[in-house]
Amino acid sequence: MSEAATTNEPAIAGTRSAVARRVRPSGGRLLLGFGLAMLAILVLVTLLAPLISPYDPSATSPNSLEGSSPQHLLGTDAIGRDVLSRILVGGRTTLFVTFTSVAFALVAGLVLGLVSGYVGGWVDEAIMRVLDVVFAFPVFLLAIAVVAALGPTVPNLILTIAIVYTPAMSRVVRAPVLSVKKWDHVEAARSVGMSEFRIVIRHVLPMVVSPIVVATSLTLAQTIFTVTALSFLGLGPPPPDPNWGGMLADARQFMELAPLTVVGPAVAIVFATLTFIVLANGLREVLDVGSDR
Fold first, then answer.
1. d(Cα 224, Cα 269) in Å, to the nearest integer?
2. Which of 11, 36, 57, 231 is the most buried (most CB within 10 A)?
3. What angle do CA 218, 114, 164 make, to 5 degrees?
4. Strand pairing partners for 199?
5. pLDDT tens-digit series, residues 86-137
6. Residue 118 burial (C-beta neighbours within 10 Å; 0-12, 13-18, 19+)
7. Where in the numbering of this chain does the ABC transmembrane type-1 domain appear (predicted)?
8. Do 266 and 248 contact (CB within 8 A), yes or no?
């Protein structure tokens, strides 16, 4: 009986592994689909905000700090502006800064990571040591210092966030490049006289797509918090354009009288952040990043 059980253990383990391989990608696709659906809702609502917002987000009324009503579903703020309209339109500013800054960080990190990892030598050392200086500072504190020095404008906010997240992007790209450049097909391409640029574009870059896609999704989630936190501190886009962090800052002293002025933008921030976290986890499972399967 004991021998039979021992004999069957490899078969049982193999069966469990096979089941796990079938279930985990399926779960990953489900998670990815859920994340994409949340992203579609977020993007559509943001793009259509001027059309679906019930009021002008800057228009004031005598009914300040009004609770939920048929006219104002999420009430009004301290100077009578419709909270729902400001959340919808404010999402455009917040997400524009988020997507644009992460796009710049992605491009810069991709170039620096590819050059550093593929060329190696003193070039790798020089790039990594410069990025280590930026990486040594806490992201949020560095962002505060740069924005405070440059001024709280949308271009400066985008530049700041791109700077503070570029080192992390570069590290994500550099790590697989160090391994991929030694693979046989890369050496074969080099032996037949293919230019280094073509080798990087055709044989090295496709190998780093999966980790950089996942890293980008996670960076978007982190950037949402960074943008809203800077805006909360008065270092975000200046008035009168609404943004979620600025709305929280304006409403914090009235949260007992009109809690919806705080709850509304807070829920929007959490939903946007959760969207990119779910998307990143789904991508990690489907693209098989960081897995031993």
1. 7
2. 231
3. 45
4. none
5. 999 988 888 999 999 999 999 999 999 999 888 888 888 899 888 888 888 8
6. buried
7. 91-280
8. yes
Least confident of 9-13, 93-97, 146-150: 9-13
The torsion angles phi and psi of 221, rounded to 5 degrees, stand at -65, -45
Tens-place pLDDT, residues 29-74:
888 889 899 999 999 998 898 888 888 888 888 888 888 888 888 8
Distance of CA 244 to the CA centre of its chain: 16
Residue 37, Cα to own-chain centre: how many angstroms? 16
Domains, the chain, with CATH or none: 16-287 (1.10.3720.10)
Q: Tell me the pLDDT tens digit for each residue of 14-26.
A: 433 333 443 345 6
Cα gap 271→266, rounded to integer Å:
9
Q: Which two tokens stand for residue 262?
A: 């705080």
- What global pTM score does this model have? 0.81
Is residue 162 within 8 Å of 112, Cβ to Cβ? Answer: no
From CA 66, how far away is CA 82, in angstroms rounded? Answer: 9
Q: Which residues pair with 76 in a beta bridge?
A: 82
- Structure confidence at residue 27 (pLDDT): 62
